[in-house]
Amino acid sequence: MDPPFCNTVCPVGQWGPNCTKQCTINCYNESCDTRTGQCDEGCPDLTNLPNRDTECPRGQWGSNCTNQCSGNCYRRSCDRSTGLCDKGCNGFTDPPLCSAVCPSGQWGLNCINQCSIHCYHRSCDRTTGQCDKGCHGYLNPPYCNTACPSGYFGINCINQCSMNCYNGSCNRTSGVCDKGCIGFTDPPFCTTACRRGQWGPNCTNQCSRNCFNGLCDSTTGQCSQGCQGFTNPPSCDTACPSGQWGLNCITQCSIHCYNRSCDRTTGACDKGCNGFTDPPYCTTMCPSGQWGSNCSNQCSVNCYNRSCDRTTGLCDKGCNGFTDPPFCNEVCPRGQWGPNCTNKCSMNCYKGSCDSTTGQCDKGCNGFTNPPLCNL
User: Fold this and answer.
1) Terminal CA-to-CA distance of the chain, rounded, Å?
2) Which Gene Ontology molecular function entries are recorded, alphabetically (predicted)?
3) pLDDT of residue 51
4) Residue 2 has what pLDDT?
5) What are the residue ranges spanned by the domains of the chain?
6) Residue 276's closest CA among 265, 262, 292?
7) DSSP for 128-171, written as a single string
8) Which of 29, 31, 28, 59 is nearest to 46 (CA)?
9) DSSP assignment, residue 192?
10) Are residues 190 and 207 in contact, defined by beta-carbon separation less than 8 angstroms?
11) Global confidence as pTM
């Protein structure tokens, strides 16, 4: 400057003939060689000294581009002069400084994204969004893109659904029984066992009447304490054979029952009594002289004192006027009478003939009068 003497150096920021040119703003501190105009202190955000015509590569900034953009900057992009994040933050908020970490459950550009509900506790890496504490109801961490298989739930699907859940199915995140209970009530928690005599989904089924005491397994419905009036436990699908009843059909019907027939569950005589009265209990014996079904038959007159077995009707004390006990079908031979024909007819009877039951002379007297006694 100061021609024609040219003794005064150009002021900072100027160069060339008579200092009429301005140093480029690309020069650090806008300082350049006063003769050539080249940046003599380097570049704040450019490389290629001293020509200064190439911008800093992506992710670099400052003098001679020697600084790296912060990892907090979205895509590591920053202003090449100041280093401030020019496209926002990644995993941080408050651009362009990007110094505040994302709140829990948020991630990405300026923390505007929510962590996936597949992430355990909705926790994820604040820059990638990947689940950093495992999955919730899903597999394949950190991506957590595969739902739990049926029967499993929770963090990384490591928990098994409760056996109280119907078909072993539960909500894959909470574990509550989403299809109801089996052997339990109060869905979806399924913590209250079925009441006595109930079973199945939410305890809506009644145990079979074939089950002893009406008790069955609360999950399968099978008779847990044996059968009542049926056999083949625990299914209890085969009725007791005739003459048997009760728990697994191990009890015989009473001999008091007609034809040994009884109700297969109660044992009560269902076809009446034999030798007893008061059906179906059949605890009272037939009165003397009666026998058979509900004591409806009279003992034969051929039986001594009309006494017979209360179940068979056979003469249990012998015959009267008949022989061959206990059947008493054959009349006493001529001249005999009484119990089993053991008595002889009186000689006072005509031709020794008398009634086979009373012994009285049935054809008159022989040398006596006053028939049929023939005692005069």
Assistant:
1) 198
2) scavenger receptor activity
3) 44
4) 52
5) 1-55, 302-376
6) 292
7) T--BSS-BBSEESTTT--EEPPTTEESBTT-EEPPTTBGGG---
8) 28
9) E
10) no
11) 0.56
